[in-house]
Amino acid sequence: MISLQISQVYFSYLDGLVLHDINLSIRAGEMVGLLGPNGSGKTTLIKLVSGILKPGQGEIRLDGSSLSRLSRKSVARSLAVVPQQFHIPFAFTIGEVVMLGRIPFLKAFAEESKVDRQFVANTMDLVGISELKERRFDELSGGERQKVILAMALAQQPRLLLLDEPIVHLDIAHQVEILELVKRLNMEQGLTVIGAMHDLNLAALYFDRLILLKEGRIWADGVPAQVLTEDIIRNVFSASVRVEPHPVTGVPHIVVMPKCRQD
User: Fold this and answer.
1) Span 181-202, pLDDT tens digits
2) Bridge partners of residue 220, in order along the sequence
């Protein structure tokens, strides 16, 4: 079971500092949502944890080992990323795309084994895309593509799953379907999940812990009821809202107060 420790991490692009003094501890089995306005550093933090970017200062540790000292194959066997968008330049079938998730377990120049093929088949069945196996990736709808990308990530057998706004371009049915699946994996298999989210209400419904970023700093960290308050949302998003209990779950439910209707 993986644990994540982020200690005094700073990061900047050429045009300026993006993350300031980030300190986080995430226990194995947690499901953590990253929230914040555009440009607050959510995607950058996901890229730092995945090893795509390296901190300017500070350290990130997976299971006690410094991320900077781990090989790419070792990292890929520990965590997987579901990005906002994923482009396949060739006419790959769905089965071939999902098989890409097995690359960290293959020896150089070796073909996939029977075990790999069976694991891919089981993963596609889990995600509900087995009937798409022979279809081409570029023929699919947005919701179907995102399910394929999730299946490819799960084929890596990750202990930590990183989601970079994976539902932002999907309709509500596909959004709920993907979040329900991820939540079930978290609950039943103990999969650690960190997901950058835009929708505050869906984040409150599916993530047990929320971390709110503003201008590259951690503004709030806790259960949804602690993070999603009217004062915090107004200060971070400059939005007028009312926060009420969800009628079924009791978690915070954000109601936007349109200014044009307040006069």
Assistant:
1) 999 999 999 999 999 999 999 9
2) 212
